[in-house]
Amino acid sequence: MQKKYSSIPKVDTILTLPFLISLLETEPRPTVLAAVRNVLATLRSDSVNGKMREAINEGLLCNMIKTELETLVAPSLHPVVNGTGVVIHTNLGRSLLAKSACRQMLEVAERYSNLEMDMATGERGERYSHVESLLCELTGAEAAIVVNNNAAAVLLALSAMAVGKEVVVSRGELVEIGGAFRIPDVMKLSGGILKEVGTTNRTHLKDYKTAISENTALLLKVHASNFSVVGFTAEVSVDLLVRCGREAGIPVMADIGSGSLLDLSRYGISGETPIQEYIKAGVDIITCSGDKMLGGPQAGIIFGTREIISRLRSEQLLRALRIDKLTLAALEATLRLYRDERQAVAEIPTLRMLAIQPGELKSKATAYIRRIRPKISASVKLTVVAGNSQVGGGALPQLDLPTFLLAVAAEGWSPQKIDSAFRQCKTPVLGRINKGQYLLDLRTLQDADIPALVDAMGVFQ
Ligand SMILES: *Cc1c(COP(=O)(O)O)cnc(C)c1O
Questions:
Q1: Residue 108 pLDDT more than 80?
Q2: Residue 273 half-sphere exposure, CB side, CA atoms within 13 Å?
Q3: Whole-angstrom Cα distance, residue 154 to residue 74?
Q4: Ligand 1 atom showing the smallest separation from residue 225 Cα
Q5: DSSP assignment, residue 298?
Q6: Where are the domain boundaries for CATH 3.40.640.10 in the chain?
Q7: How far apart are the C-alpha atoms of 432 and 449, rounded to whole Å?
Q8: Which class would CATH give 81-90+353-460?
Q9: Quick one: angle between helices 306-313 and 150-162, nearest 10?
Q10: Nearest CA owner, ligand 1 atom 11
């Protein structure tokens, strides 16, 4: 049998209660009203679903309304603790910014800037000029432009180069990236015509050659990003594709997705071809993300020949896809760090987390336990175990990085129950479950996360 509340008070009645009157003295009326309405809606739905807990009295209402008010005034977008070990975690904000990038962003946010003014002439300048020469210096590209994200970069490039014309793409590269970026759909949106060649697992140079016609605008290569085709496979190398394009007088474009400015193989991360290699190979247009392996803010970066980039600059669509000044400030500061590889790896969090070696992660685990242990219940068991972490962000899906993890256990707590409780903390903590253990990967934990970790472990008390 379902129990129902016999009566749920009306908003007007609640507004006359003493605790509410005093609440209205400090909190804005619309927010308090919203909290009251939300609480009443919860009570009504609890009643309908037979989930009634206790009698409705002033004490219950007061607690519920105050809790709801706290939720309403707290920012919806807030920090979380990433203990998943996935460095470029798309759902958790991808890359963390370097300190210098955060500082530069704040500078430009709090004051006026030379965003679009040339101080030498006092005339209108271009926002893109703040990063173009740096991008060219770092990569050897002739010209570059930046937009809102890589999806926008691809859309802009295709719109400028291929409206009503064919773009040749291998069937093995018609990818979908998380969050529904699909090459065939972006192509349609841009007005370009997709000309598929080859098969899912094998595409040869002759496939591209036979597909080329008077109506071909581009040869496009798309980085497979989040999957890999293994076994009986063949793809045409960038070098061969460029040669093919040159012979036919057709530009070659590469959407390389992640885009790295460093050769990370010396840190045990091989498989991502640096942007510089694509430029050296003679690819005419290259697009990549700013917040994947590059470790900067969300942005799309387009490298190309002077002629092509100037064509993109004159696209009306660019206005809709343009990068904002805060992102630009963060991107410029991030790129500056790449002038010195050691500085880049030390200061760009994404690179630092990818490059960190297992030995260092093991010491980090011990240090974290030393700092957390005294502040939590003695019944919580913390142990250090070995495992693997992932790059994420659609980069190197096959690569496992050796790591150390903190296994958290407590009497009467299944890993699923820990996971759920940690996720619902004020600063949520995200870990992963493996072989019946709840794990936090030291690779992606930050020193600033320690108070939140201590707080989360308070759930066991
Ligand atoms: C990630 C990715 C995109 C989308 O980039 P966003 O910056 O998320 O817009 C496009 N193409 C490839 C190959 C990717 O890996």
A1: yes
A2: 18
A3: 36
A4: 15
A5: S
A6: 99-347
A7: 16
A8: alpha beta
A9: 100
A10: 257
223 CA closest ligand 1 atom index: 13
DSSP 390-421: EEETTEEEEEEEEEEEEEEEBTTB-HHHHHHH
**Ligand 1 contact via 394 beta carbon (within 6 Å):** yes
- List, in order, residues 6 or more apart from 354 with CB less than 8 Å away: 87, 264, 267, 269, 293, 391, 401
* Token pair of 110 as six digits: 């709090």
Structure tokens of 283? 């690819």
Average of pLDDT values for 190-202? 93
Residue 445, pLDDT > 70, answer: yes
Q: Alpha helix locations (H) across 76-230?
A: 99-110, 129-139, 150-162, 183-190, 205-211
CATH topology of domain 99-347: Aspartate Aminotransferase; domain 2 (3.40.640)
Contact 312/138 with Cβ under 8 angstroms?
no
**Ligand 1 atom nearest residue 226's Cα:** 15
222 Cβ inside 6 Å of ligand 1:
yes
pTM exceeds 0.90, yes or no = yes
Is residue 188 a contact partner of residue 154, using CB atoms and an 8 Å limit?
no
Residues 298 and 291 sit within 8 Å (Cβ to Cβ): yes
